[in-house]
Amino acid sequence: MLVEDEHYEEALSAFDHALALDERNAEVWVLKGNTLAELDRHDAALAAYNQALSLDANDATTWLYKADTLTHLERFPEALDACENALRLDPTDSTTWLLKAASLTVLNRDDEALTAYERALALDPEETDAWVGKGDALIQLERYPAAAAAYQHALELDPDETAAWTGLGDALDALDRHADALRAFDSALALDDEDVGALVGKADALASLDRDEEALALYDRALAQDDTIQWAWTGKGDVLANLEREDEALAAYDTALKLEPDSVRALLGKGICLQTLERYEEALTIFDHVQTMEPGENSLWALKGDAQTGLEHFEEALASYDRSIGMDAASPWPWYGKSNALKALGRLQEAAVAHARAMALAGEDDEDDEDDEDDEQD
Length: 378
Description:
This protein is mostly helical. It is built from 22 helices and no strands. The protein has helices spanning 8-21, 26-38, 42-55, 60-72, 76-89, 94-106, 110-123, 128-140, 144-157, 162-174, 178-191, 196-208, 212-225, 230-242, 246-259, 264-276, 280-293, 300-310, 314-327, 332-344, 348-361, 368-377. The N and C termini lie far apart (84 Å). The model is unreliable at 366-378 (pLDDT under 50).
């Protein structure tokens, strides 16, 4: 009754008195652990659960309580182990599968997390948190249509689930359905106008629609709440660059990179800004660094070619543009760059062919005979 009435300190005194009489009572250790957890005293709660498990290691519920406490302590590998012990004893508990999935998500084991969410849903198909978690895992796996479907299922169960609206917005934005994404983010913000994920997501969607000033205001609003959101600083850098405020953009990218030094998006954004400012050596250094991490990044080689052209390293630029064309021959950008590099090297006929190909791909020249000529000369 004391715990139910939230008289936690009195309850703790009662449990300590009971344990003084019988310290081998596992049930009382569990009750003490639960009370300590309610008081956010998770280290002490963990000690109590460990005492209970030393007396009875075959209680699945105690393992679940321990796992939950370990997640509060951000000790996720240990939480996962505790979940495994709980599931070994009771594989039919949907809550344990859900907690296991959440721990796997934090550990970036997204395929396994998805499997765990699906196990939870097989046991309890009306668990909204499991549908949201499934959507989150699918987002990480870049399975955006399936993620959108999972979030929509969550919203059928609970239309007031802010996380589901935010997740749906993220999925729709990734599918280039930016106007639909905006509506989803607005639904999330109608429920919680300070939801940081929805603020950043809406800013991303606005940026995709070239509504940069509105996006910038939302990034600033989100960062005023939490200035450790790396992708918000990166998004802010992108819109500032679009607004030709390169010095401010560089500052935003630098902040993003302090939070996540190997963020490819922030590094590329910073490199592009430096290139716009004709700081080609610095830009090239950044692109070389990205190359060590993501040599298959779609835009990297054309960017390198542009920096090398700015430095008048035309042979190197030509090699970079050719590498880019090998990855995406349908993009006009590296063909334009290749044309400029060839022209600078005095290879004018080849330059003309590359330029014609670029124009055709950009939709500026649709004449079949020029396309055929290009094919023959290539």
